[in-house]
Amino acid sequence: MARWAILVALVVGASAGAVVLLGSSPEPERPASAAKAGSLAAPPRGALAIPKPEGLGDESDLTRWAPVRRRVVARATPSTSGRAIARLSLRTPEGTSTPLPVLGRSKGSDGRLWLRVTLPVLPNGTQGWVPRRTVGGYEVVRHRLVVDRAKLRATLLHRGQEVFSAPVGIGEERWPTPRGEFLVRNRLERYESAEYGPLAFGTSARSEKLTDWPAGGYVGIHGTDRPDLLPGRVSHGCIRLRNPDILRLARLMPVGTPVSIR
Q1: Quick check: is 238 catalytic?
Q2: Does 106 share its domain with 191?
């Protein structure tokens, strides 16, 4: 049987065009691609492209805010025993979520994290503390709207650079537009009255004179059906822009933008 096996192996090897020496190992066949490796195309680039990391940069133009997620009492200190300052609801009078500018954070005596925020109450600029768990995730903006009451002009900055400027109307002397640092709380459209123009922004600023105004006397930024009155001191405290200007501003300014009224 061993001789027949050898003969069969020789016949098969000869028919395949190969010579096999008994008692020796056959030379491994070189792949055809080995001889032409230099002529192959470069391998395809990976689908995942990781960009070069960038530094955080200057945060002086950065504002953080977070929406209220639970009804909460803001307190004077980061503690449940701190003096109550204001009760915050989930919704603004217009039915949108209530955003709070986040100024800082601290761990309370109970070990929980608290946030220092600016509150939409009188007097304007009031600050307080709320538990971190009562608000949602942080949102970040790098815009700022500056309203100059002396020059009757609004200027929008993005990363410190001017991207928009237009004349405005502000409150009459008896109903002045309040000074201070505020926040754009919402964006409202489809008004039935042409008096407000095609679009309005609600802010956290409140009139110090019209405290019995509907919804609490919040100051808005909106269009007008009397562009001939602008610029001027013509409103109950709201900031009016010509309709083309408010529409242009709406394309540039996100909710959460801080508003500096000077």
Answers
A1: yes
A2: no
